[in-house]
Design goal:
Mean pLDDT: 76
Strand content: 5-15%
Strand order of the largest sheet: 1-7-6-2-5-3-4
CATH topology: Glycerol-3-phosphate (1)-acyltransferase
Number of domains: 1
CATH architecture: 3-Layer(aba) Sandwich
Largest sheet: 7 strands, mixed
Number of strands: 7
Low-confidence stretches: 249-296
Length: 296
């Protein structure tokens, strides 16, 4: 690529970046104004937020349009959030740290986000109760039960706690498989938000890329009452969204089946650093979503 082509590419990336920011700010302003926006417009806004970054969108299948619903998906990128919103507008789960951010924290809180106390296990029952209340009220809630973003070529096990809220509320679970790939078919890790990435760097990498496709495959809904407990429900949801060969169970060693129910949303575990080594956790450690550099 010569200097002229590089300049044109930089201009296009800057325009995409500006478009993403403009769409996000527009959504925030509408939210703060308390306006009731039809679900179809919200889905279109979410889709165009992804499209504005230069990433094409493909959604297969559909989620129920009304009634309480827990949407769960594997987690790769910040793009997952608007991508899931294009499936069905929903309340998001977020770590409580965000609520303390200057300005942005207050805006997010007023937008209906449900917060979790990731470092307080004793607060978990209260969090589950709040999610169940929202579900009983007819809201859709989006959760990423892996508890952290992964590179897209490997995935982590689903944590179980959020599924208790669906059981308590008696609402269905909607699994969604998220994938990013190039137009020619190969998997793309460009949108992955892992390691020491800053959000700004990740956004710029996405808007600078070419030919990336975001896919949301809406899997068959799992009805209420179909599974006896949250362990079985979480296993069924994970089976629906991922090739189990992509999961890295040995990261958790012998503790994997009995690890505390953590990880209701993104950010519950440290994001992996490039070249991190796989290891089973020692007793008392928190599991790490470590990904070898070859996978990133």
């Amino acid at each position: 690529m010569d200097a002229r082509d590089s300049g044109v590419a930089a201009v296009k990336a800057a325009a995409r970046f500006a478009a993403v920011v403009a769409l996000v700010l527009a959504g925030v302003l509408v939210s703060q104004a308390g306006l009731r926006v039809p679900a179809g417009i919200v889905r279109g806004w979410c889709r165009w937020t992804v499209r504005a970054s230069g990433v094409r969108v493909r959604i297969s299948g559909a989620a129920p349009s009304t009634g309480g619903l827990l949407l769960v998906a594997n987690h790769v990128s910040w793009l997952d959030i608007p991508l899931l919103g294009a499936v069905r507008p929903a309340r998001m789960l977020a770590k409580s740290d965000i609520r303390r951010w200057p300005v942005a924290g207050a805006l997010v809180a007023r937008g209906g986000v449900l917060f979790i106390e990731r470092d307080r296990i004793r607060a978990l029952p209260e969090t589950v109760a709040r999610i169940a209340e929202a579900l009983r009220g007819g809201a859709a809630v989006v959760a990423f039960p892996e508890g952290s973003t992964w590179c897209g070529r490997a995935q982590g096990p689903f944590r179980r706690a959020v599924f208790q809220a669906a059981l308590d509320a008696g609402v269905p679970v909607q699994p969604v498989r998220v994938r990013y790939r190039f137009a020619e078919g190969g998997a793309s890790t460009t949108p992955a938000y892992v390691g020491d990435d800053s959000l700004l760097a990740s956004v710029w990498r996405v808007v600078s890329a070419r030919g990336v496709l975001a896919e949301a495959e809406v899997r068959p809904v799992i009805g209420p009452g179909g599974h006896p407990d949250r362990r079985a429900l979480a296993a069924a949801a994970q089976t629906a969204v991922t090739d189990m060969d992509a999961v890295v169970p040995h990261l958790w060693g012998e503790h994997g089946s009995s690890w505390p129910d953590r990880g209701l949303a993104a950010g519950d575990h440290p994001r992996p650093t490039a070249g991190a080594q796989l290891r089973p956790p020692a007793t008392g450690d928190r599991p790490r979503s470590a990904i070898p550099a070859s996978l990133v």
